[in-house]
Amino acid sequence: MRPSGRDLSEMRSVSIETGITKHAEGSCLIRIGDTHVLCTATIEDRVPPFIKGSGLGWVTAEYGMLPRATHSRMRRESAAGKQGGRTVEIQRLIGRSLRAGVDRVALGERQITVDCDVIQADGGTRCASITGGWVALRLAVNKLLKTGSIQSDPLPDPVAAISCGIYAGQPVLDLDYPEDSEAGVDGNFVMTGSGRLIEVQMSAEGATFSRAQMDNLMGLAEQGVAQLAEIQKSVTNV
Length: 238
Hints:
There is one protein chain. The chain is globular, with a radius of gyration of 18 Å. The chain has a single domain (14-236), classed as Ribosomal Protein S5, domain 2 (2-Layer Sandwich), CATH 3.30.230. Strand 8 (185-192) and strand 9 (197-204) form a beta hairpin. The chain has helices at residues 77-80, 85-100, 104-107, 125-147, 177-180, 211-236, and strands spanning 14-18, 26-32, 35-44, 58-65, 111-120, 159-167, 170-173, 185-192, 197-204. The protein starts with 13 loop residues before the first strand and ends with a helix. The strands form 2 sheets. The protein has a 5-stranded mixed β-sheet. A 4-stranded antiparallel β-sheet has the order 7-6-8-9, sandwiched between helices. By secondary structure, it is of the alpha+beta class. It is built from 6 helices and 9 strands. The longest helix is centred in the C-terminal third of the chain and has 26 residues, at 211-236.
């Protein structure tokens, strides 16, 4: 029934390759099916002015898509002179999601910026960015712990995200582009590895949905995030 031939509760293939870039404190290339995102984490000994002197750390994110990440070329947003609304919304989501999983006291007064650059898009780029972004963040924090710059681990639990939706009347896990473009209901779920919710985005794209359907999608999301968290831990030696 699904265009890819997957079962309703079957995710696309997932791989995360770490140490992709030379200079970033943490980096990875996450591949979820045909969606590929390069994630890097940069540590800076400064924080935004509104928390300066508080002793709290800060995690933020930036997101972008390369011109040929999609079927037709997109103009670079830098050439247009401003970011689009979708880009701003997604990078704020990534930043909020990653921050929610950080003990900012343990991180200390420093900022980590996670950059997520979509190389190839086939649905679920924001979810892949959050999942890969946490891996880059984890690797950067590992370096802080190794050098003694921080004394306790500020990342108690992985943070990952997965999409679920109603496609052809059935609840499905991890929508690719053909499904996402035709789904009657589309949802993105951000959770911790232990199953705690961080953010849920759900909307009726072509039909309303029931509480029972929402619960079904939540169950699929829990299953998917648990799988992603295990992969995250395996590649970061947690």
